[in-house]
User: What shape does this take?
Amino acid sequence: MTPRPDTDAPSTSAPPLFADPRRTGSLIGLIGACVFVFSYTPGFTDVLSVTARILVIASVSATLWFLFAAPRFLGPFVPPRRRHIGAYVLCVVMELALIAVGGRLLESVGRAELRPALIALVVGLHFLPFAWAFNERMFYLLGGALLLLGGLGLLVATPAGALGAAVGSGLVMALILLAYSLGLFARREE
Assistant: This one.
């Protein structure tokens, strides 16, 4: 299946849908968005939790539709080189290490309840090098937004602020990936 003709996209600029790492890689972000929202909302006990969960489900559903059922042009495909894959792996390893070390640090000072904000900040930080590694400017916005939300959650330094940073990060991730799936970050070939 090729991108829809209404996007003026060349049909030869990307691998097949389910082999395109931009599309399949987006699945990881969508799962992350759901984890942020569903892990840090108490369920269907209050209007904000219900609203956040419905918004993330709707955003994820629409994103999947535009990635795979009615695909849009995501920009010219640039296959990642070995060093870019290495940078990706290093970012993921460092992300896990920073979350573990930061979590222990928060526990040692009696502030373990701020861990959700720390996770949002570190996840945002780990996205920034992806803009270079995968030639996708969307990662600057995604990483910057999560860094900001996580940082604010840590600065507010309350359990509600930390949870709000995490849930907000999940919603922002889902919405940015929806915009990405619509081709709003696509660079046009010259």
